[in-house]
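Limitations
The structure tokens in this dataset are predictions for the assembled complex, not deposited experimental models. Users should treat interface geometry with appropriate caution, especially where small molecules or nucleic acid strands are included. An illustrative entry is reproduced here so readers can see what is and is not provided.
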Amino acid sequence: MPDKLTPRSQDFNKWYNDLVVTSELADYAPVRGCMVVRPYGTALWENMQQALDKRFKATGHQNALFPSLIPMSFLEKEQHHVEGFSPELAVVTHGGGEKLEEPLVVRPTSETIIGYMMSQWIHSWRDLPVLLNQWCDVVRWELRTKLFIRTLNFYWQEGHTAHATSEEALEETMRMLDVYNDFAVSEAAVPVVPGRKSDSEKFAGAEASYSLEAMMGDKKALQTATSHFLGQNFAKAFDIKYLDKDNTLKHCWTTSWGLSTRFIGAVIMTHGDDKGLILPPRLAPIQVVMVPIYRNDAEHSKVMETCTRIKAMLQDDMRVKLDDRDELSPGFKFNDWELRGVPLRIEVGPKDVEKDQVVLARRDVPGKPGKSFVSQDDLANSVAEMLDTIQAEMYRRALKFRQDHTHEPRTYDEFKQVVEDSWAMAWWCGEKDCEAQIKEETKATTRNIPLEQPQGRGACIHCGKPAQAQAIFARAY
Amino acid sequence: MPDKLTPRSQDFNKWYNDLVVTSELADYAPVRGCMVVRPYGTALWENMQQALDKRFKATGHQNALFPSLIPMSFLEKEQHHVEGFSPELAVVTHGGGEKLEEPLVVRPTSETIIGYMMSQWIHSWRDLPVLLNQWCDVVRWELRTKLFIRTLNFYWQEGHTAHATSEEALEETMRMLDVYNDFAVSEAAVPVVPGRKSDSEKFAGAEASYSLEAMMGDKKALQTATSHFLGQNFAKAFDIKYLDKDNTLKHCWTTSWGLSTRFIGAVIMTHGDDKGLILPPRLAPIQVVMVPIYRNDAEHSKVMETCTRIKAMLQDDMRVKLDDRDELSPGFKFNDWELRGVPLRIEVGPKDVEKDQVVLARRDVPGKPGKSFVSQDDLANSVAEMLDTIQAEMYRRALKFRQDHTHEPRTYDEFKQVVEDSWAMAWWCGEKDCEAQIKEETKATTRNIPLEQPQGRGACIHCGKPAQAQAIFARAY
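Predicted assembly:
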């Protein structure tokens, strides 16, 4: 029997930390702050990878692989970049038994080494754009860690592109934010707000950073993907130049964008409930689990025969598992697969065999499981439809949850109350100082400045000066 | 125009080094001995990954992800392991701006950290076997490097499994050698000899290592995959124990097995010719390239219309590229795609449009390209058949090449001559000293002791003592 999970409603933090481990998504590694992604978590990540990779390729990107060791001097070429990343570096000082002349860092991100290679590969306007993506792991020396959300080692993809003009680079930055948005919504059923980061929250070395922000079940915000317009900062630092049609040498304009295993954390904290994970059907490693129900050998063979036939019927179109463990009770199995968030359970008992039916039990319906009896005829279609319904309902519920907990305070007193336990959409002057004071006074930070803005103008919720735009303020992971 | 490639027949080494770079498979990174795998090479590697991953999953394995940083003390727990890997380690001594209490190594291989995690996860015989695989990159501080063949950083998969009995672990070791064999033959058209490594050539920490050895175009041997029976060495070092059915605690038996981007080197050096790469259809990133041929605008639009239609007809079933670059001549394009090893070229000119035909040009036929005229009707089938033929012929040619250059010398004088420029299958006493002397005198090492052995017995080719078995002796990468 799996250990009893701390209910989400009782202690969200403990629920999350326990759930990641007991559902066997991940585990703590024997290196401080590092994680091991177990097979169940890896299968979930691989489904995410496939869904994203397809979108990257459809938008013209190609994958490439760059070394994980980067000369320290490379990071120092872009001033903001090195300032941002220095405190987080893991440094290799010895190789092959000898002290290195120049230390290498284990990559925290690859703008520098990819920038260097781009400078070798790009010569003419004909070589542009260069549209690359890399799937890899990175190391950042974080102090406070949490599985999937913030660990010393994590897995991600990092896109890196070079363009002839500022306009094209900006267009790419927004295109990839859109791609992430589509992935979050269509595949993960995670509603997100696309917007621009404030200057104090932007990527070290970027001209402008854009993010997707999602509301977790405890109403804190989680940044789930970012897309950066790097201007010519890295092109100048690494001399990425091209000969334009007018026969003059020009610096390129570059972008970078990333999404990591942190997104698994977003899926857990968006959808999970007291009983465990609820995984969106499109990403779930197991979409349908079949549990046979029987009391004796005669029933067992009858029920298993039906189960095997049904599994064969479904498995070409979906990821099905038949739980044929003989030593465990159906009740145990129900709990076990609910903990692991399998979206749909098929129960088959002797009566179902007789009636040519099965029981479908939805994981996502709050409270009692939404059970229904469905004919075995045309089951592949009924199950596929049910999975689509679950996917859509999960998104709708998560979106409603965010809407219900996002408010527009009219005074700073209201604002302070709102950010205690929800998101505030508030007018903001755009000043760093104002932002810092709000953070100190309320623990809420600007998450982003949503691309979609209301009509009209307002005054800064904190200082009263004319506001630039509305921003999301929230406590965040 | 791509730079003129050094012909293979003139200088094999230079041909290889130039080809890897000019075909844009890989490039030298700005860190000594490290490589960048460019999009074309990455696409090839991804096709290899898919073909292998499918086989791993079909044999019950699951992917997982372990940190790339491993405590130095972990390596020291298995004596032979640390002796073997110490000279090759990259060591992280600083993290987050501070000196670490214990240095971490960037993983050269993951037996240690996976062994540690297995000891946490395995409790009872019910938990066995544990069948894991990891796709990742590793770092080994090599001194003499060569793109794909031996670099400081490379990409691979490493399988790690734990079993209740020695028999099961041995069975797994051989199963995975078989899986690699099937991959090499069916997907890469690379003939390989499965066999056992001598004690001096085995993996540091293994009881027994098995390998696949392939003959390259210069008749040197390349080890293309390995599978290790680790006995209880790592289980004892990391305390991987299970409670058996008889209620006693027992150590597990473990295996590990790996195949890396080195295999790309094997594909290049097995099949390539003076004009460049020849990629096996099943792995080629582009299986069919279409080159339109025209002299004026009227011809251009007519030919492009046919090309676009044919591309649409083929692209569901195969990886097709239409080379519509307007500023380049057909001759340039022919050379370019021949350099990159695309297995089949479709040429479409105005006459072909009229006659409802296309020209198929095979990349693999030695000497003149094997051109044929094929009707546009049912083209998807003709092309698919042609690709199958190419795949089969490539394997047949490579196998014949190895057979033609493998000899069974009867005297040590003959042996010395044979290993100058081919493989020797020779009886060997099995003694380390004899092996070392042969190596010193001839530069030939034991590649492996083939699983398939001739009838009868013989005397060691070097010392004349009764031989244990025949071994392959060859100069090797």
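Some entries come with short summary sentences. For this one: Chain B touches chain A through 55 residues (CB under 8 Å).
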